[in-house]
Structures are given as structure tokens and as C-alpha cells.
Amino acid sequence: MIWASSRGFRTAMPDSLFFKRLKERKLVQWAFAYFAGAFVVFQLLDALAEPLRLTPTIQRVVLVIVGIGFFFTLVIAWYHGEKGRQRVSGPELLMVASLLVIAGVALTLLGSGKEGGGPLPLESDDRPAIAVFPCENWSPDPADAYFASGIHDEILLQLQKISGLRSVGRESMEWYEANPQPLRAIALDLAVGFLGECSVLKDVERNQVRLTFQLLDGRTGSQIWAENYYEDLSARSIFDIHSDVARSVAQAVGAVITPEEEIRIDVRPTESSAAYDQYLIGRSWLRQRTEESFLQALRHFENAAGADSTFALAYVGMADSYALLGSYQYLPSREAFSSAREFAVRALEFDRELGEAHASLGYVQFRFDWDFESSLRSYQRALELAPNYAQVYQWYAVALSSVGRGEEGIQLIETALSLDPLNFNHRRAFGSIHSSSRDYAQAVDQLEQALAINPGFHPTEADLGIALILKGDHGEGLRHLENSAQLAADNPGYQLLLAWAYAKVGQIAKARGILREVGEAPYERPVDPVGLAMVFAELGELASALDWLERGLQIRSPRLLGARNSEVWDPLRSDPRFEDLLERFSPLPG
Asked: How far is CA 553 from each of CA 72, 165, 255, rounded to the nearest angstrom?
């Protein structure tokens, strides 16, 4: 047998002699014995992880030690051989020291968290974690499905207030409900040790509600805790059920509830059953993300506030409805966000400890007020009050990315996805953050995943089309932008995005054709000046582009937030007027 070395070729030790030396030194026997011992260790680790509350970090440390120990065992076997020696030689000391250094580095890497000014991501989160499936509607009236859905929302809301517990968001669990998987597979996918199942029966004739909740071991599917609640169909009783479920789950999984969290969990947002019922209907509409659903949600939240003028969550719902109507360009920015701010502030007047209200106010402060510092404080306070509220992490991440702090934004959006990994909006935001950083390959990957989770959602189609165009894939980019323009045929903003794409790929006649149509068509909603500025900038008509940007500044268009980083605005960057405009609207602190 011949083998190569840096000094040339030489004859290797005969195979028989090599294996004879291995046998003399008992390497094979030592290796098999070590593997047998390691197997026992792994089995014990798996069996005792849950009873002893062994955190993921501890389990990884054990695995590293076992791995390092294998190489250490081979070193000892080789040097001590069959006879063994009574003292350790210099080479052995050197090898042992090297192995200890390697082990120390590995353990340091495992134990270290990511640095940054924002909340820590959850990839090294050692808290007990739970994912609760949507509540089944056992009511005789199928129309009461909103009630079961709302009960699920409120249970999650209570669990989100417990800092010692990680709870997975609603969107991911709805996906698993539509795409059933084995319980163990779901628990592994979501990195949770516990799963929750619930059912709700609303009996209007008897004026009663029945809720059944059971907590399952994510590895085995065995029941850990369960309870049946039979209560009056009143807001007071329902909120008491939510609080008891949250407290019982925390106790069963070993999560500590702080005294401040105990107080927040026991709060009853309203005593009015009518107000609570209207609020639940509003939340079910708000999740659908269409113009009609936003307007329907707003109407029901207004009804809830009418039934109880002190119901803070109803005002949060109104604030979110207006903010989303403005963000999706269904209402003029000033009208939408001014109303959103008014209702977020009103919610806080009734409940200063409501994390959702602080989050809603932070959203307005950043997207419309361009007040980065105030927005930052609102988001941080929201996370103090609701540490598992994934939506805040998403909004916070987008805000940081918009002011050039993309790495921190990525850290936060990863946290949002840890809390709700199948939430298409989080995934879409992740793609937008990568686009802002001009990492178009990653942007396309994230946006394709978002579109796969929620096919046909035209804002995602548009974002993906832009990322593909900027990446250089013009054919696919145009296809997605044409789809989004067709799906939102009554929204001039998406027609202008398509016009920009045509200008970008050199189809100037088509771009100008859309400009004429937008100028002539009787759209019910306003045309965003920033969309027009995009098209004129790409056509090389820079003076017109800057004029339209000025108008965008006057109406406080949220789309200006991307101007600092996006490649779309590169044609204007050398113009002093553009730099002046950035300085006047820039949300950068200080």
C-alpha cells in the first residue's frame, strides 16, 4: 500500500502489522466499550430530560463532553496500550491540554448568546415552551366558530404575559391544524416540550360555556394536566377561565409567574358580555388582511367600545384596524394613522399595563410620526408586559432595519419566527429586511416561503417581484408583480409597482401606459405620491420624482421609510434635494 505525504511518496506499514498494533493497543475494544457507555448516557439523558427539567443548553453540554471524551479515550488507549504505564508522559499531557482547550471553546460557544441591544433571540431559550392548538368549536351553531377562535386568542394572550414561559403564536398552530402531523413531529418542529388542546361549547339557551383544556407531553403525547370548565356565559367567568388555564399550565410545566404577572393575568378587561363578544368577532375579521375585513373589524371594535367605553382592548383593535388600513394604502396615511394614534392613546388611558396598546402606539410613532426614540420605548415596554407577543418583535425588527440597523433587525425577526415560525407576515418582513440590506438571494428565499404559507396574498407577491427584479431575475419578477397588480386591480399602488418594474427592465412604453391609466382612472382610494416617484426615478425623470417625493413627505407616506436603504432610490442619491429630503423625514435618533 502506498500513501502520500508532504515529503513525497513512501511505503506504508503493511495492513496486517497496522491492525496488529491496533489490536495490541486495544483501540477497537476501547472504542466499542466507549460507544456502549455513550449509548447508555444518551438514553438516560432522553429519559431524564423532562423529569429533571434539563435545559437544552445542559443537554448540548453533555453531548459535547461525550464527544470530546471519545477522542480522549482513544489517546489514552493508544499511549497506554495493553500493558499500560504508571505515569503520564509529556506528549500525553500536551494532548490532554489540547483536548481541554477544544472542549472549553466548544462549551463557550454553546453557552454564549448573541449580543445586541434588542431582546435575545430564542434559539438558546431554556424556558419551558408550549404550543396550543386552536380551540375546537363544539357549539351547535357553526357561526360560533369566532367564539372558539377568540377563546384561543385570549388563552395565548394570557400565556404571552408569562416571561418564564415561551408560547408559540397562533398562525403556526393554525397551519398544523390544516396540515395535521404527529404530535411528536410538531413538538420537534416548534422546539416545544408541551402541547395544548382545547374545545369550546357555547350554549346560548342555557347561558353557559364549557371549555375543556388538556396539556400534553410533546414527546409522548401523554396527558399531563386537564380540566373541564362549566361556567356562566359571562365576560367575568370567561376571563376567569383564561386566567386559570394560564396559571395551571405554568405550574404544570414549571414556569414561574412573577407577582407583577399574576396581577396582569387576573385583570378582567371588561365586565360586559356584549362588548367581549363584539371584540372577539372583530379580532376574527382583523386576521384576514383584506380591505373589507379591516372595515368589518373596525365596526365590531366600535360596537365593543360602545357597549363598554372603558374596554381598552376594543380601542387597541380600532387602533390596529386604522393602522393596517393606512399601511395597506386603503386609507390616506394622515387620516388612518391619526385615528390609530388616538385610539392607542385612549387604550393606555384605561390600562397602562396593556402590552398590546404600547405596541400599537409604537407602530404609529414609527410609521407615521417618524419618532424613532418614542417608538423604541413603546416596543420595549410592550415586550416587558407581553414578552411572547411575536408581533412586537416583527414591528421592532422592521423599524431597526429601516434606520440602517439591519443586523439587529434580523436578530429580532428571528425571535418573532421562533415564537411563530409559520406566520407568513413574519416571514414576509424577514424578506423585506434582507431586501433593505440588498441581500436579494435571502430576500427571495424568505418571500417564497411566505407566499407558500399564504398563497395569493398580493403584498407578498409584490415584495417577491421587486426582490427578483433587483436580483436580476426579470422574468419571474415581472410575473409576480403582474399577479399582484391583477389581484389588487383597484389599488393604484400595486399598478405603480408594476410600472416601476417595466421601467427597470426597459419596457418603457408599458411603464408610461400604466402612468397614464393611474392618472385617468377614477380610483376610490388615493394614489400614493411615493409610488409615482419610484416610476419617474427609474425613467430618469429625476425632477418629477423629487417633486412627488416632496408630496409624499407632506402627507407623511410610510413608504418613505425605505428610502434610506433601498436600491430603488439609487438614481436619486447624488441629487442634493434627495439628501435634504432624507434629513427632513429621517426617523434616525438624535
From this structure: 66, 43, 48
Rounded to 5°, angle at Cα 267 from 263 and 271: 160
Tens-place pLDDT, residues 236-270 = 888 999 999 999 999 999 999 999 999 999 988 99
User: CB-based contacts of 81: which residues, under 8 Å, 6+ apart?
Assistant: 24, 25, 26
- Any residues with CB less than 8 A from the CB of 198 and at least 6 apart, and which? 132, 133, 135, 136, 151, 152, 155, 211, 212, 213, 214, 245
Which residue in 329, 392, 409 sits closest to 117, CA to CA? Answer: 409
**CA–CA distance, 372 with 589 (Å, rounded to integer):** 6
Residue with cell 426582490: 467
CB 195 within 8 A of CB 160: no
- On whether the 129-267 domain is CATH 3.30.1360.130, my answer is no
What are phi and psi for residue 182, nearest 5 degrees? -60, 145
What's the rounded Cα separation, in Å, for the pair 239 and 269? 8
Domain covering 274-493: architecture: Alpha Horseshoe (1.25)
Q: Are 432 and 398 a contacting pair, CB within 8 Å?
A: yes
Q: Residue 194: beta bridge partners?
A: 130, 217
Q: In angstroms, rounded to a whole number, what is the distance separating the alpha carbons of residues 343 and 353?
A: 16
- What is the spatial distance between Cα 460 and Cα 473, in angstroms, rounded to a whole number? 17
Q: Which residue reads 433587525 in cell numbers?
A: 409
C-alpha cell of residue 190: 416548534
Find out whether 139 and 201 touch, Cβ atoms under 8 Å: yes
**Where are the domain boundaries for CATH 3.40.50.10070 in the chain?**
129-267
**What's the pLDDT tens digit per position in 398-444?**
999 888 888 899 999 999 999 999 999 999 999 999 998 999 999 99
Please count the CA atoms within 13 angstroms of the CA of 43 that sit on its side-chain side. 6
Q: Count Cβ atoms within 10 A of the Cβ of residue 31 and give its class: 0-12 exposed, 13-18 middle, 19 or more buried.
A: middle
Backbone φ/ψ region at 363: left (φ over 0), alpha (ψ -120 to 50), beta: alpha
| Overall pTM surpassing 0.70 (yes/no) | yes
Q: Where in the chain is the domain with CATH 1.25.40.10?
A: 274-493
